[in-house]
Structure formats: structure tokens, C-alpha cells
Specification:
It is built from ten helices and 15 strands. The protein has 356 residues and is α+β, with helices and mostly antiparallel strands. The strands form four sheets. Strands 9, 10, 11, 12, 13, 14 and 15 form a seven-stranded antiparallel sheet that branches. The protein has a three-stranded mixed sheet with strand order 3-2-5, with no helix packed on it. Helix 1 (8-19) crosses helix 2 (27-36), helix 1 crosses helix 4 (82-91) and helix 7 (149-159) crosses helix 8.
Length: 356
């Protein structure tokens, strides 16, 4: 059974809303950042209230805090609120700047600060229930406007009837990047752990942007589905489940033969058709013959970005690590287009051939 951490990603979005900008934002600004990017009001309300409370508990572990808040409609237990539980977990790995931005705005922090100035000792402080000015809105069905990338990943795998459990682990984590006003930028790292892999984990990262978090996260998931999902399914998790979605070729290597299982070439930023990167891939595979390869499944990923024919980004990864020999080959290859902006991404798995 796979269980999704339903509000981890919403909490990440909430932390970003508190931390954006040169100066600490007010509650109205945080609210507008959240709801303006598609976070539903019931979820935005909880992020605005619970994140400062959770981060204050991380900042002041010596203080005894109440495990409830009091609203006009009655007392609400914090352990029963999944957004608070997710916020408390996120607070445990928060950086100092995040803690200062989020915790210092809490009414509980202010109460502690006032008590200390009045002469109380930190270890003697017991903070009572925080009073809310309004009742919490009911939790509505759905994701609250912040889709879970992990749930999306799991859904894609279920669509291919991939059995998960045991030694096979999958995950997808959201990272928020600064973006211009009216736009949000999501990076999603999709990770797989499997005993057949040469590395401990296979991680493929994709970015998406849009006016809402649903658009941005959905864009990252769509790129992953197009470029990396099917080689992972066909070459590792459930061979035979996606044969029409990949390209296959035999690859001879001194360490034994492999089958190269490739996903679709992703072309980004270009305003015209982009030629196949097949010739460059052939050069990379030739260079790879000088590298030792174990009889495990190896990941190979290429991402190149050019502007007006000049190389701007050169990433060739072998088992998730930079491969200098591959990057040297890529640096010596011509740009796919002579002018304008263009980026090319290719991902594949090298799977030991049967009987080799």
C-alpha cells in the first residue's frame, strides 16, 4: 500500500509565501500570495495560522505549548489537524532564515517574549490555548489547490500496473523557486529506489511554471511523464508495461551487453522544430565504452541549453552524478539550432542484456 503525505507540498508552498520578498510580509500579503496562486481558502487559512505555531515550537523547544486552539465554535485539537501535523514536521528541517521569517510572527512567540521580558524563565513557561478570531473553515475534498506530486507519480505507476512495496520505493518532492509576480515556479524531484539500480536512488528533476500551483506542478509532472516515466517503468519497475512508449537498442560494452531504453526527447524554449539529438547520443555512447559499468541498471541523462548557438548549460549525468567525459563530448558538439533559445533533454536506462 502506498500512502501519500497529503499536505507536505501545501506546507512547502506556505513556507515560500512567508519567506518571499526582502521584508517580512503581513498576513494579507501572505493570504494573497496563497489564494492568488490557486490555494483554496480553507487551506490558506490553516497555513497562515498553523505554520507560525509549528515553527515557534521548533524555535522554543523548552516552552510547554498547548496542543489546541480555541475558536468561537469550540476547541480544536492540533494533533487532529493534518495541516498542523505536516507543518510541525516541516519545521524540524527548517533553515534559520525560514524559522525567523515564520516563527517570529506567531502570537505564541510574542507571548513568550513578553513573559521573558517580565522576568519569567523559559523552562517555566506554559502557553495556553491560542484564541482564533474566526472558526476554521471545513476541510474540503481534494488537494486544496496544491496537487501532491507524489500522489501523481503513484497514479502514473498504478496506470501501468506497477507493483510497489518491499525494496522498491518511490517519492516525489516539491521545491519552490522564486518567480515574477503572477507566476509560480515548481521543481519536482521524482525518486526511485530499487535493488537493481547501480546507484542507491534514481532521481529525475523537472520544472514547471504557471499562474497557479496546479498548473506549475502539473507541468512538471507532464514533463516527467513524457521524458522519464516510461524508461523507468519499462526498464526497471515493470518490463513489458510500456513497450510502445520507449525506444530500445542493444549497446555493446566491455563489461557486457546492455539494452538502452530511451524516453522521448524533450525540446524546450524553441520556436521551431528541433533536430534529433541521436548523433550526439551516439557519440556519448561511444565515449561511455571507456567507463566501467557494473551489471546493474544505469541511468543516463543529457540536458543541454543553447542560446544563439552558444552552450549555456551542459549536464550529462551517469547514475545521477556529473560525467565529465560525457560533458566534454557535449561541449564539442554543434548546437541543435543556429540561433534563438533551445534546450534538449534525453533520459534513458542501460539495462543488462539477458544472457550477456
Amino acid at each position: 500500500m502506498i500512502e501519500s503525505m497529503a499536505f507536505d507540498d501545501a506546507v512547502e508552498v506556505g513556507v515560500a509565501a512567508f519567506c518571499a520578498g526582502a521584508e517580512p510580509p503581513g498576513d494579507d500579503e501572505v493570504w494573497n500570495r496563497l489564494t492568488g496562486a490557486g490555494v483554496e481558502p480553507w487551506l490558506a487559512q490553516r497555513l497562515l495560522i498553523f505554520l507560525p505555531m509549528a515553527f515557534t515550537r521548533r524555535l522554543l523547544p523548552e516552552v510547554s505549548f498547548s496542543d489546541a486552539v480555541v475558536a468561537p465554535g469550540g476547541r480544536v485539537g492540533l494533533p487532529d489537524e493534518p495541516v498542523f501535523v505536516a507543518a510541525l514536521a516541516r519545521a524540524q528541517r527548517a533553515e534559520r532564515g525560514e524559522i525567523e521569517r515564520v516563527a517570529l510572527r506567531s502570537s505564541e512567540f510574542n507571548a513568550v517574549n513578553n513573559a521573558l521580558h517580565a522576568g519569567s524563565a523559559m523552562s517555566d513557561l506554559v502557553i495556553g490555548d491560542t484564541a482564533l478570531g474566526a472558526d476554521l473553515g471545513p476541510v474540503l475534498p481534494g488537494d486544496g489547490g496544491v496537487p501532491s506530486p507524489r500522489a501523481a507519480f503513484e497514479g502514473l505507476l498504478r496506470g501501468h500496473h506497477v507493483p510497489l512495496g518491499g525494496e522498491t520505493k518511490v517519492d516525489a518532492k516539491l521545491f519552490v523557486h522564486p518567480a515574477p509576480a503572477g507566476v509560480v515556479m515548481a521543481q519536482v524531484d521524482f525518486a526511485v529506489s530499487h535493488p537493481a539500480l547501480a546507484a542507491s536512488r534514481l532521481v529525475e528533476s523537472f520544472a514547471g511554471h504557471g499562474a497557479t500551483w496546479r498548473e506549475a506542478i502539473g507541468g512538471a509532472v507532464h514533463k516527467f511523464e513524457r521524458g522519464a516515466l516510461h524508461p523507468i517503468v519499462e526498464g526497471l519497475l515493470r518490463p513489458g508495461a510500456a513497450p510502445d512508449q520507449v525506444e530500445r537498442e542493444r549497446y555493446e560494452h566491455a563489461g557486457g551487453a546492455f539494452e538502452l531504453i530511451l524516453g522521448a526527447q524533450l525540446n524546450l524554449f524553441a520556436d521551431r522544430p528541433v533536430p534529433s539529438a541521436g548523433p550526439l547520443l551516439d557519440l556519448l555512447l561511444d565515449a561511455l565504452r571507456s567507463e566501467p559499468l557494473t551489471r546493474k541498471v544505469h541511468g543516463l541523462r543529457l540536458f543541454l541549453a543553447h542560446h544563439d548557438g552558444r552552450l549555456q548549460t551542459n549536464e550529462v549525468l551517469l547514475d545521477g552524478e556529473r560525467w565529465p567525459g560525457g560533458e566534454a563530448v557535449a561541449a564539442g558538439s554543434p548546437a541543435p539550432l543556429p540561433d534563438g533559445s533551445v534546450a534538449v533533454r534525453i533520459f534513458g536506462l542501460l539495462v543488462p542484456a539477458e544472457g550477456a
